[in-house]
Amino acid sequence: MRKDAVHNRERLLRAARSLFADRGLDVPLEEIARTAGVSIGTLYNRFPTRQALVEAVFEDRTATVARLAEEALTADDAWEGFVAFLTGVCELQAADLGYNDVAVRGAAGGDPAGGYSLMRRIVDRAHASGQLRADVTLEDMAFVTWGIAATVRATFRVAPGAWRRHLALTLDGLRASSASQTRPLPAPPLTREQTALLMPECG
Amino acid sequence: MRKDAVHNRERLLRAARSLFADRGLDVPLEEIARTAGVSIGTLYNRFPTRQALVEAVFEDRTATVARLAEEALTADDAWEGFVAFLTGVCELQAADLGYNDVAVRGAAGGDPAGGYSLMRRIVDRAHASGQLRADVTLEDMAFVTWGIAATVRATFRVAPGAWRRHLALTLDGLRASSASQTRPLPAPPLTREQTALLMPECG
DNA sequence: AACGAAGGTGAGGCGCCTCTCAGGTTACGG
DNA sequence: CCGTAACCTGAGAGGCGCCTCACCTTCGTT
């Protein structure tokens, strides 16, 4: 690739990163090109589809999630690791409206550097320590993601940080002590296949 | 109003109700008119803005919510009433993608027939019975709404009913027994003003 | 029956966004 | 320094959805 092409690619990524973060994934491509100081044609040269641009912009996030997961596994307490991981992921969503969209729409593509199997280990460890309720599965983590993402979107202008309250309430519902002993949960967990369909990046 | 106008108005409402339910609030107005067998001009005659149409379509829902709230207040057990109310509201969202949008975007306009003060009574009653955790407020109900709505949207094609599992987990987090005694929640509840801003129909 | 007002119609203007392509420009190996 | 392949450009075609308005039809009243 010629070096001016590389240069333009980077300018486009910088512009897209910033606009996606502020306004979500639906920013007009023309605006991204203009912000990057490049023509719309160049944008299409570098990124033939919007999807390609989105994937390039959020490529680093998958590594970040993997790092969060690894840190969580080294936490002294399994539950604290579990909480730290989910908090970290939600912080990413709160800091970047574009990534928030990615999380909700499953638009990232590609497995997050083995994030899925790391997450499984976090969940297993929290189960083993007896602090995560036994009837909760890895697939239920999607509920946390979707729920907190929605609260972030609803409140980020008016009450940034409010999602932390929602997350705390959600996490309390996942503690072993919160299980409603009387009756089982009213629906089965999502299957692995369903999760793969809904969040391709976790397949 | 002339009777052909009334007739067309009803055809438009029927078409909009059906399309909104299946595809959400962003259906093209032209398509609604076409489905109703009426011209786009007529749609604009009856409903000068999209907002007006949406409000007319979902007018009945506010009464439904009020009815749910009243039923909840007559339940033998305060907690069961509380759960029944939230379940009912979520069922409305799960049954109609348009109403789901309304709930998330706060696009309904108008107080739901005093639904807000009824909800307050449901929450107060659940507090009084000692079953709803004390550090949860009426405003926190918005988290439930947003969260379940998001899960409904994500799963309704692939796993309809999965939201019930999410709701059950969420509700378990709201039980008094789930309060993490050690530390307070990490963020204050939304203020009444913030809630009014975010969900105008609850102002 | 006749008339005025209310209502219906749909082509077309507008704005927004996506995507293409013919023509001009630049990098870089030889 | 030259030639060519890679690259950049931006006008414009095309699609979509919103909304208006001049013209015609129908209702309902007298």
Condensed summary:
Chains A, B: Residues 6-65 form the HTH tetR-type domain. With 203 residues, chain A is mainly alpha-helical.
Low-confidence stretches of chain A: none
Total beta strands of chain A: 0
Q: Approximately what portion of the residues of chain A adopt beta-strand conformation?
A: under 5%
Please work out how many helical segments of chain A DSSP would assign: 11
Class inferred from helices and paired strands of chain A = mainly alpha
What is the averaged pLDDT score of chain A?
94
The oligomeric status of these chains comes to homodimer
How do the helices and strands follow one another from N- to C-terminus of chain A?
Answer: HHHHHHHHHHH
Biggest interchain interface, per-side counts:
A-B, 43 and 43 residues
| Helical content of chain A (DSSP H or I, runs of 4+) | 55-70%
What's the Cα radius of gyration of chain A?
19 Å
Most strands sheet of chain A: none
Query: How would you sum up the global shape of chain A?
Result: elongated
Cα separation of the termini of chain A: 32 Å
Keywords (chains A, B): DNA-binding, Transcription, Transcription regulation
Pfam families (chains A, B): TetR_N
InterPro entries (chains A, B): Homeodomain-like_sf, HTH-type_TetR-like_transc_reg, HTH_TetR, Tet_transcr_reg_TetR-rel_C_sf
Protein name (chains A, B): AcrR family transcriptional regulator
